[in-house]
Amino acid sequence: MNWWDAVPVALASAGWLIVPGLLMTWLVGLRGTAAWGMAPTLSVAVVSTAAVVAGKLGIDWGVGTAAVAVAIAVVVTGVVALLLRGRSRGAVLSDPRPVTLAGLLGVLPAVLFGAAVVVLGMGRPDELSQTFDAVFHYNAIAYILDAHNASSLTMGTLGNPIAPATFYPAGWHDFASLGVLSTGTSIPIAANALTGVLAVLIWPLSCVLLVRQIVGRNPVALAMTGLFSLAFSQFPWGLLSFGVLWPNTLGLALVPAGIAVVLSLSGLAREDLIGRGRAWVMAPFVLLAGGFAHPNSLFSMVVIAVFPLFTGIWRWSRRMRSEGQGRRGTIGLTAAVVVFLLGWAFVATSPAFKTVRTFYWPPFETSSRALGEVLLNGTNGRSSLWAASIAVLVGLVLVWRMRDQRWLVGAFTAIGAMFILTASVNRTYTQFITGYWYNDSFRLAAILPVVTVPLLVVAVVTTAGCLKTWLAERPRPRLGRLGASATGLAIVLALLVIVGAKGLYFRNQVETVAFTYTRVENSPNDTMVDPREQAFFTRISSEVPKDSVIANNPWDGSGLIWALADRRPLFPHLDIAWSAEQRYLAQHLVSAASDPTTCKDARLLHVDYLVVGELHFWPTDPRIKNYSGIVDPAGRPGFQLVDSDGDLKLYKLTAC
User: Which domain of life, per UniProt (predicted)?
Assistant: First the structure.
């Protein structure tokens, strides 16, 4: 399959992510960049919530279910908007047409640039991400398609029939399943198309809205934001290669829009395009979307939002004192601080977050090196982004002088400090700060572009304005008409950044994405499934009945049989909680002919076949030994060879 054939899948993914929310934002009175920037957040909130409700009510998940849920949400939104018209929501806020067009049309170059990165980085639209987490994500889509259940409340165990259902944020998987159901494409293509859309369209739209709230009605700033949003390796490109953290990618892509809402609530938005009343309406959708996409995104939003929120509360408190209501102002400020500290204490001690908080990644560099990586946007050993980073540092100085936007300095400092803690310290006493990101430097580094993108844009447009003023004050005119135009100077400065950044680090971004898609050629010991294994796993779908379960050692790549061949493996992931019966089979299946317990457990779990693959992926990982009973029977009684290709073999379990 070529990439042109994958375009309808990408369009379907974009449609599901944008159209439902766009209908709702329009009805509540948002226009222009606000409507488009907030649309994905509302879509994710509605679709993910619908999946949970459908699961609870026993309604099969599918295109029809999602469409009905969207229709209901749109109708309810319309009715509520009609009832509230002329009351607390205020008049429709909109930008002049040139400003709106600048922001939205500026996303088109980002789509073209980003699409080129995705195409060259992934190689083929059906290429597999050869990573630990990808096995879970691919099979989560397969589970949704098989069980017709897309609820986040059951996703944690991938539908294991004899294990208690657990929560896992399924927003990304919900939309990937809709991509499959809408177009009939394969799971790998749907996953790649959706993730590409998040990187090259949803993230730029979200950034445009945030920049609009920061700089106001500045068409030049909005026009360059889309392209500049793809300049930083940490996000979105970093999360397309590390993990892979596709749900986190969805969540973080929505964070700038969430911060745009926070700026409206705190009164810091310049020429506010959302309005405080509508911001209160948007806030629950922001929380729902973040929670169902990935809770990490909510914690990321809190780290950034705390600065504008408390800036707004502090200013309100001062205003109360100036109006003779000092007691009210003091109580309000104190209450806000207490609520924040109580919330922090809860998540820092709650058992629900213990596993996440205590996850350990060993520190790998000195604090001074980690600081340098933050300042040069070369975190986790990536190449330093000199041109963009210099502009960001200039932006930090400039926003400090823009009193309303000093929160950007605080947010940048906080995110950078947390990265430094995870990269160079990572001790038990730091977990109460960094634990909500698994104490993981990659996840924390990915938050930086939420702040560095607007800082880069502010640096360019503000420097252009200052340069125009400086040139105008010279005894003789300089640079002719160009020197008298802030717009022209901003365009020149933007082009200088792009050239200095070697085309926004295009080659670097491609290499970042390609890292997990080229394991077969470049790193055999990191390869989950090579082409021969993929062909074999696909072929056996015609040899195994649909209702049979295939015993497997997931570390040999056979966990992907579900996503590749639509046949359910006994172990669909490398390391999640298994039942006692599954653990017993993992250790004893090869002895089925002489072990009655093995047959009892096999019948309970509908295990009729055994597949044997080749161990390429992390061959020295000790967890592989947990599957010592799932090996090639090699002539033992109770197994009949059905198909083979060298060391790849499929057996029928005849002993039971």
Answer: Bacteria
